């Protein structure tokens, strides 16, 4: 009988979420990975998630499909150019409206159905693009909501906890942590605007932050760039 506690891990196939999954597994959780096919232009990340979820330690992998292109408002879901001229202080056009709230809501529903009370999300408030749904106060607010909005919490079966173990780490610290846990970063992808062949552009915010992290960690990024 498997006595491991179940946890739902938001898993995109990117560097942060893969590291987050490894942290959950090392903490003794049975990781139930949750990915989304929402019409994102960087779908190569999802393809890697689909292919490698068992290899990175997921005991189950659920992919939820919905077409968020109907909403638009982001360079990741609409016909807008992905910025490639450096990281700005303003919230960039790659921000997807309310994305983490939508993702966490799905994760909360699946966790309640599984009888799990732990949800992991790989948000980061240091080396990131300034998205409002990556801040500590947002994570705390969603955790409060989770414990107000679910039958399991209201009836006292348990209290939901939103784990954000990368929240206060630099990208270099995240990479070092992942390597210490045996993460193979060849199995990840971070680019917002990859080529049709799946090569990372090297210039979008996500690529710049990833490359900066590997440089500061003193390790070569194993993925292929244009």
Question: What would you say this structure looks like, in words?
Answer:
With 226 residues, the protein is an alpha/beta fold. The protein has a single domain (5-217), classed as Rossmann fold, CATH 3.40.50. The chain is 35% helix and 12% strand. The protein has helices at residues 15-26, 44-52, 99-114, 136-149, 151-154, 171-180, 205-217, and strands at residues 5-10, 29-37, 60-65, 118-120, 161-163. The chain has a five-stranded parallel sheet with strand order 3-2-1-4-5, sandwiched between helices. Helix 1 packs across helix 6 and helix 6 (171-180) crosses helix 7 (205-217).
List the helices and strands and how they pair.
Elements: E1 5-10, H1 15-26, E2 29-37, H2 44-52, E3 60-65, H3 99-114, E4 118-120, H4 136-149, H5 151-154, E5 161-163, H6 171-180, H7 205-217
Parallel strand pairs: 1-2, 1-4, 2-3, 4-5
Helix pairs in contact: 1-6, 6-7
Compact summary:
The chain is an alpha/beta fold. The protein has seven helices and five strands.
Q: Class in CATH? A: Alpha Beta
Q: Biggest β-sheet, characterized? A: 5 strands, parallel
The helix content, as a percent range, equals 25-40%
Instruction: Supply the CATH architecture.
Output: 3-Layer(aba) Sandwich
- The number of strands is 5
DSSP summary: helix tally: 7
Please name the fourth-level CATH homologous superfamily. HUPs
Shape: globular
Biggest sheet, spatial arrangement of strands? 3-2-1-4-5
Strand residue content: 5-15%
The computed structural class is alpha/beta
- The value of Rg in angstroms is 17 Å
User: Could you tell me how far the N terminus lies from the C terminus, measured between alpha carbons in angstroms?
Assistant: 48 Å
Order of H and E elements? EHEHEHEHHEHH
Tally of distinct domains: 1
Low-confidence stretches: none
